[in-house]
């Protein structure tokens, strides 16, 4: 991958066959581009694996440079049997629209239907030279409500002749089966350590400010990345800014979650629960999603407790995260998990 978003001075590669890793997947997507048409697609896999990069490279291969000229639009849609209007933001070009499901709120069903309907009803100015279809890209589609997913399934069937849907998700299990069955599912796995190392070395060669980076710095980035290319790149950029100093300050939210884990492991009681609640509120105010909080908290808490408690804590975290997804107040589920974890740790002593 000859470029990476956190390094704005390096030219970004937009061709599928030039991306650094997942060569077989890149070739499959390139074959789709050569066919100049495709059905609905569902990309899934862990964060930092390159899903968004490949989606944008796919669109670039289909539509050319026009897909890179995007603008932020503020739109409104009317609520049936009411004078109320709902406003939402999208990123659009002449060929496609991008929206993030987590930002649509409780009106996601209405917004999704409205976006696809407007896109499908607008025709190309020159159908002989332009593609007969446009694309709607939905990032974080697993955050759509069940009603919105069912509405999306009906709408994508109705307008399939001139509108294609590309969804990008972290967790495939949160997408309903009828929606999955109408898409080609494409898994984008995490890159291996050797693939991350190779990509980082390529970045260092192309960045003139990275002369202070040595082999041990690359290894530190690979270790910190832990399969997440984006995190490895952020670590590399931090090292370059620090002129090669090995002490990398962790991201602020990770430090807060680490503090919560220490409180759970050492301060079981009312004061500890209240302190954790304050820190959870701070994380949610910073727009850190609950799934990231749960995942990071379990990873930070596991080394601090007895090994026999590990499966108990994991089961509680999964159950609590499930309630968090279906509920409306994440703070309640997070606080409940902390209370249960403290109780299990206390009685095991």
Automatic annotation (TrEMBL):
GO biological process terms held by the UniProt record: DNA repair; DNA-templated DNA replication
InterPro entries in alphabetical order: DNA_pol3_clamp-load_cplx_C, DNA_Rep/Repair_Clamp_Loader, P-loop_NTPase
GO cellular component, one term: DNA replication factor C complex
Entries under Pfam families matching the protein: DNA_pol3_delta2, RFC_C
Gene3D superfamilies (alphabetical): 1.20.272.10, P-loop containing nucleotide triphosphate hydrolases
One Gene Ontology term of the molecular function aspect: DNA clamp loader activity
Alphabetized UniProt keyword annotations: DNA replication
Name of the protein this chain belongs to: Replication factor C subunit 3
Species this protein is from: Strongyloides papillosus
């Amino acid at each position: 991958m000859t470029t990476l978003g956190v390094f704005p001075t390096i030219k970004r590669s937009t061709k599928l066959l030039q991306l650094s890793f997942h060569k077989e997947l890149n070739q499959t997507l390139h074959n789709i581009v050569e066919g100049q048409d495709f059905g609905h697609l569902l990309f899934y896999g862990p964060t930092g694996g390159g899903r968004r990069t490949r989606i944008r490279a796919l669109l670039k291969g289909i539509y050319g440079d026009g897909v890179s000229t995007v603008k932020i639009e503020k739109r409104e849609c009317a609520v049936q049997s009411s004078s109320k209007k709902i406003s939402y933001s999208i990123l659009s070009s002449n060929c496609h629209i991008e929206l993030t499901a987590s930002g649509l709120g409780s009106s996601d069903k209405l917004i999704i239907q409205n976006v696809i309907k407007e896109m499908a009803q607008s025709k190309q100015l020159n159908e002989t030279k332009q593609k007969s279809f446009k694309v709607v890209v939905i990032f974080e589609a697993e955050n759509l409500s069940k009603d919105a997913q069912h509405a999306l399934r009906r709408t994508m069937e109705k307008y399939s002749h001139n509108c294609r849907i590309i969804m990008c998700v972290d967790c495939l299990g949160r997408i309903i089966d009828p929606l999955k069955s109408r898409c080609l599912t494409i898994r984008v796995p995490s890159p291996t350590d050797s693939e991350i190392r190779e990509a980082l070395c390529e970045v260092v060669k192309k960045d003139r400010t990275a002369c202070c980076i040595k082999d041990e710095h690359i290894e530190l980035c690979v270790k910190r990345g832990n399969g997440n290319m984006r995190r490895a790149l952020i670590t590399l950029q931090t090292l370059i800014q620090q002129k090669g100093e090995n002490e990398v300050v962790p991201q602020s939210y990770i430090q807060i979650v680490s503090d919560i884990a220490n409180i759970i492991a050492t301060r079981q009681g009312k004061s500890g629960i209240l302190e954790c609640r304050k820190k959870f509120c701070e994380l949610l105010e910073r727009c850190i999603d609950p799934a990231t909080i749960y995942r990071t908290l379990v990873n930070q808490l596991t080394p601090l407790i007895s090994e026999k408690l590990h499966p108990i804590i994991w089961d509680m975290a999964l159950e609590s995260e499930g309630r968090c997804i279906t509920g409306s107040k994440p703070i309640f589920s997070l606080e409940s998990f902390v209370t249960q974890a403290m109780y299990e740790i206390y009685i095991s002593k």
